[in-house]
Structure formats: C-alpha cells, structure tokens
Design goal:
alpha+beta, Dbl Homology Domain, Chain A, PH-domain like, 8-stranded mixed beta sheet, 53% helix, globular, DH_dom, DBL_dom_sf, SOS1_NGEF_PH, guanyl-nucleotide exchange factor activity
C-alpha cells in the first residue's frame, strides 16, 4: 500500500465515523424529544407509570456523553484519523454505559411490546421507524465502533507504532463492553447464591467449562470477578429460560494458577495455598482462545493482588521495624508462590 492509499482509506473511515456519529446523536435526541415526555402525560397506561428507567435505561446519559463530549472530540480528529484511539481511551469509563444499557434492553423490549401507546406517537410523527428500532441504536452503535476501529487497524502502517497501539487498545475497550453487557445479563440469572456479588469487584468474563475435581467431572458455567471465581450449574426454567444455580465459589486471593495441564492445550488448573495438593480444580475450555483469555485475566488478577499484598506488608514493616526486622523476603516468596505458572505434563 502506498502512503497516499493509506491516508485516503483512513480519511474515508474517519468520515464514516463522523457522519454516523452525528446521525446517532440526532437519533438519541429524537427519542428524548418525542418519546420520553409521553410518560408524563395523564393518559399513560397504569403499568407504564414510573417505568421511564425500565423503558429508556440510561439513554439520557448516553446522549449527554456523546453530544457534549465525544462528538466534539471526534470532530477534532477529522484531519488526523490516527488520533481517534485516544478519544476512546480517554472515555473508557463512559463506554461502560453501553453494557448497562444492553443489560436493561430485554426488559425494555418486553414492556414496549405489551402496549400500543408508543405506536400512536409513531403514527402521529409519520415515522417509518418505531420506538423499538430507535432504542436498538445504542446496541448497533457500539458494534459499529468495533467494526470501524478494526478497519483503521488494518490500514495502519508499520511505522505508526504508537497510534496502532492506541487504536488496538480502544478496540479492546469496545470489545469488552460488547461482551460485558451479555455477561451482566447472564449474572442476573444466577440463583440460590449466598454471596453478595455486588461486593466482588467487576465481572470480567464468564464461560462454560468441563470442571474436574478429584475423580468427579461436571459441566459448569464459571464466572470470574475481580475478587471471586464462582461455579454454577445451568438449568432450564419451566418457560425455557436459562438460569445458573450456585454451586460454590472461591476468593481469588486464596487461589493459585497453573497455565496449562494435560495434553489437549485446553486445560488450566486452580489450586489453593492452604489445602492439600489434591484439592485442585482443572478447567477444560471449549476452545483455546477461551482458555488463553481466562489464564491471562487470572494472571493479571493474581499479580495485582500480590503487588498489593507486598505493598501492605512493606508499609506494615516500616511501621514496626523492631518487631519484624527481617521479613522483606516473605512478600516476594508469596508473589512467587501464587504466580506459579509452570506447565504440568
């Protein structure tokens, strides 16, 4: 590819990003102008009263974010498309709004489908699109971001290392939110759990594994939080919905990780510092990319916890040097112990 070709392609992608962003912001504003005020009318059906949050979710926050901040920052990148990665990274927390919106969407859809109340407004506006189609826009938008960022990555030249890294990181932020919305929905389907999941840090990922413990083998849906790994068993309700019955959980601060075990390349192992050697759990993933994603996330969690523990120990040691003068090696040993990641043959 010539430099001219790369520049032209990046400019084309940037123009599409800006054009579709402007249309998206207008669509969100259209909903807020024409549909949200309907719920304040006297003729609102009784079961729609007080349901603004259920129907529209955090749409107003999304509109404020895009209208007041993100659209303007994208426009500032019009002539320098490779700067766009920074815009996404600068607002990575705001993109968390999309996972929450996606989580709420099924409840919104179910409520709208029960009524013709909003359909009358559509006819009055002579609009070919109904409210459900407009409320799908945020879900479509974040998928569009993922597509456009991938296209930009494909056009980055080898000399544009830092810009490529920024766009790659931005694409990962968007991919996480796409997955996280589904993860939050699945988390809502956990049953009979006596653990407060809101206190376990962020839900990082969830997948199905064949779990082996001693001589037992079972299929489990496993949830990885920042502070907890949780095992559930999938079941169907009488209506055919999937639910996940709580089986057991372990604090991530109590476990260690072995990246690979067995010959399949699909298994990893979690073990416990304060239990017998045979008390280990082997998790077999369906695909290698799932296994690699889980071990990478677990490694990151364990490393962060080990560094935190080391910092707390050194702080305590500095406060009571006379009582514990020679403990500096203990935290390092703990880091090495918990980060044992050798492969078992």
């Amino acid at each position: 590819k010539t430099c001219m070709h790369i520049r032209d392609m990046l400019q084309r992608i940037m123009e599409e990003l800006l054009l579709t962003e402007l249309d998206y912001v207008r669509s969100l504003g259209y909903i807020l102008t024409h549909y949200v005020p309907l719920l304040a009318r006297l003729d609102v059906p009784p079961d729609l009263r007080g349901q603004r949050g259920t129907i529209f979710g955090n749409l107003e926050k999304l509109y404020d974010f895009h209208c007041q901040y993100f659209l303007q920052e994208l426009e500032a990148c019009r002539t320098e498309p490779l700067r766009v990665g920074r815009c996404f990274l600068r607002h990575r927390e705001s993109f968390g709004l999309y996972a929450l919106y996606s989580k709420n969407k099924p409840q919104s859809d179910a409520l709208i489908q029960q009524h013709t109340f909003f359909k009358r407004k559509q006819l009055e506006l002579r609009d070919s699109m109904d409210l459900s189609s407009y409320l799908l826009k945020p879900v479509q938008r974040i998928s569009k971001y993922s597509l456009l960022l991938q296209e930009m990555l494909g056009e980055c030249g080898p000399q544009q290392v830092s810009e490529r890294q920024e766009i790659q990181a931005a694409a990962e932020v968007i991919r996480f939110q796409l997955r996280h919305g589904n993860d939050l929905l699945t988390m809502d389907a956990i049953r009979d759990c006596d653990v407060n999941l809101m206190e376990q840090g962020q839900l990082i990922r969830q997948d199905e594994f064949c779990v082996m413990f001693r001589k037992k083998k079972a299929l489990r849906r496993v949830f990885l939080f920042q502070d907890l790994i949780l095992f559930t068993k999938a079941k169907k309700t009488h209506r055919g919905d999937d639910v996940y019955v709580y089986k057991q959980s372990f604090k991530t601060c109590d476990i260690g990780l072995t990246h690979s075990c067995g010959d399949s390349g699909l298994c990893f192992e979690i073990w416990f510092r304060r239990r017998r050697a045979q008390d280990t759990y082997i998790l077999q993933a369906e695909r290698q990319d799932i296994k690699q994603a889980w071990t990478a996330d677990l490694e990151q969690i364990l490393w962060e916890q080990a560094l935190k523990n080391r910092g707390e120990f050194q702080c305590l040691e500095s406060q009571i040097p006379k009582l514990q003068p020679d403990k500096s090696d203990a935290s390092s040993t703990d880091v090495a112990c918990r980060m044992r990641c050798s492969s078992k043959q």
